[in-house]
Amino acid sequence: MTQTRILFVCLGNICRSPTAEGVLRGLVASEGADIEIDSAGTGDWHIGKPPYGPAIDAATTRGIDLSDLRARQTSPDDFHRFDLIVAMDRQNIADLEKLRPEGNTTPVRLMTDFAPGAGWDVPDPYYTRDFEGALDLIETAARGLLDSLR
Ligand code: 4NP
């Protein structure tokens, strides 16, 4: 597998996309795939901040450390820097498409594309408070994403 650069995107970059980044980093570390991973949010409220405490805590119970991650906002340059952008929900995709540089063809997919039967959007645990459920779905989709690259 040649190196693939993947960007996970959600709204705040403090719950779902950093969780996806941490989960896929863990899979890649244990399985040795050549993948560069980052995450970003379409919103600007949390730039520079670590992931949300309950998201860090939920990931920690599964052996995933999110504490070093820091939020940043998506930019048009992300379409040049990454081979694949994976969004947590359909609103993220709509917001991302407003940033796409003219002529750029980088694929933007939904996280649930890699978790058949999971519906459309990864429910936002910042609002649902279901951090375990979000992790379950993100772990399934990250596994499916990695398998799809092989
Ligand atoms: P995320 O969740 O998009 O999964 O990081 C959110 C976290 C914070 C906010 C929105 C979504 N917020 O509006 O502050």
Please explain how this structure is put together:
This protein has 150 residues and is of the alpha/beta class. Helices cover 39% and strands 14% of the residues. It is built from 6 helices and 4 strands. The chain has a 4-stranded parallel sheet with strand order 2-1-3-4, sandwiched between helices. It starts with a strand and ends with a helix. The model has no long low-confidence stretch (mean pLDDT 97). The site of 4-nitrophenyl phosphate has 11 residues, from loops.
Q: Based on helices, strands and strand pairing, what is the structural class?
A: alpha/beta
Outline the biggest β-sheet. 4 strands, parallel
Q: What portion of the residues fall into strands of 2 or more residues?
A: 5-15%
- Average pLDDT, to the nearest integer? 97
Radius of gyration: 14 Å
* Spatial order of the strands forming the largest sheet: 2-1-3-4
Rough shape? globular
| Separate helix tally | 6
Stretches with pLDDT under 50, minimum 5 residues: none
Order of helices and strands: EHEHHEHEHH
Number of extended strands? 4
- Span of the ends, CA to CA: 7 Å
**Helix fraction?**
25-40%
Instruction: List ligands, each type once.
Output: 4-nitrophenyl phosphate
Provide a compact summary of the structure.
By secondary structure, the chain is of the alpha/beta class. It has six helices and four strands; from the N terminus they run βαβααβαβαα. Strand 3, helix 4 and strand 4 form a beta-alpha-beta unit.
Chain-wise SSE layout:
Blueprint: E1 4-10, H1 16-31, E2 35-41, H2 53-60, H3 78-81, E3 84-87, H4 90-97, E4 108-110, H5 125-128, H6 131-148
Parallel strand pairs: 1-2, 1-3, 3-4
Helix pairs in contact: 1-6
